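Make up an example, fold above all:
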Amino acid sequence: MGGKCPHRKVKKRRLSHKSARRTKFLVKGDDMVYEELRKPDGEKKPLPLDEDLPGMGQYYCLHCDRYFSNVSVRDEHFRTKRHKKRVKQMMGPAPHTQLDADLAAGMGMPDNGPKLMSM
C-alpha cells in the first residue's frame, strides 16, 4: 500500500503565490498612475538613483509602475501583452477613485434637498 495515486495529477506551482500577493500591495493604484501620465512633460522629474531598486531605479515603466534591471529587460517588457493592455487601459477614461466608491456606497455628501427659510 502507499505510493502515489495514479489518477491524481498534481501540478507544481511555478510561482510563489505569496510573492504575487505581496507585490499586489506594493504597486500604485490605477488612479495614481493615471494622474502621473496626465502631467505635462515639464512637470515630470528625472528618476533619482536608488540602490534598493533594480537597475538603480533608472529603468522604469510608468504605465505598469515597475522597475527593471537594464534596458533590454525593459524593452522586452514593452512588447508584452500585459504592458499593451495596461497602456490601452490608461489611455481610456479615468479609472475609479475612492470618491466614486464612497458615492456608490451612499457614504458621500448628503443631499438634503433645497434649503428652506428658517423661522
Notes: The first strand starts at residue 59 and ends at 61. Residues 25-95 form a domain with the Double Stranded RNA Binding Domain fold (CATH 3.30.160). The chain has a mean pLDDT of 79.
